[in-house]
Hints:
The chain is of the alpha/beta class. The chain is built from three helices and ten strands, in the order αβββββαβββββα. The chain is elongated, with a radius of gyration of 29 Å. It starts with 7 loop residues before the first helix and ends in a 5-residue tail after the last helix.
Amino acid sequence: xxxxxxxxLRRVAALAALVVLAAVPGCNVVAxxxxxxxxxxxxxxxxxQSVPSAPSSSAMRIGLKAVQLxxxxxxxxMVVSTASNEVQFEDYRRWAEPLDVAIGRVLxxxxxxxxxxxxxxxxxxxxxxxxxxxxxVDVRSCxxxxxxxRYEASFSAVIEISSVGAEPRVVARKLFVAPSAAWDGSDYGxxxxxxxxxxxxxxxxxxxxxxxxx
Length: 214
């Protein structure tokens, strides 16, 4: 007697059941959640200094324009220059705030603490905000660098100081380059600290370059 073949659909169902039973004991359908490896960093203000509660009438009033950045710095990723024409963006090491805003904040803190400066106004300036000079800052570098096998922090910016009035004129313009500082190439908190010190030094440079009040 010739045996009859079972119905094809029955064979498919039985095979599917066997596959499911074999997969259940040793397979996790949902992959375990992975921790986000991204770390965020900020530029820190310089140490607090004693500032007179009532500035003298001779203290200058400064207008600090919005900080300008090179296009490659206009992103949250921290930057490391690895060659003269090559940069790498650190996907998992990011600035916690826009870099231009952070630099402006540190500059303002540094300028306010400088002797001879009574007030620092930030752009956009209030309509009734009287100013003696306006300051613009164009940041050319703010990053880590790899030079000759040595990692360093690199910061530079062009400073421009101009008079205020119907016919403003540039009274000072210079390139500020912070002294090189060693960095190990992996501690991005240290890199942020070094760049913070560079921005504070830029603020001190601006304060020293301000002409005497007319």
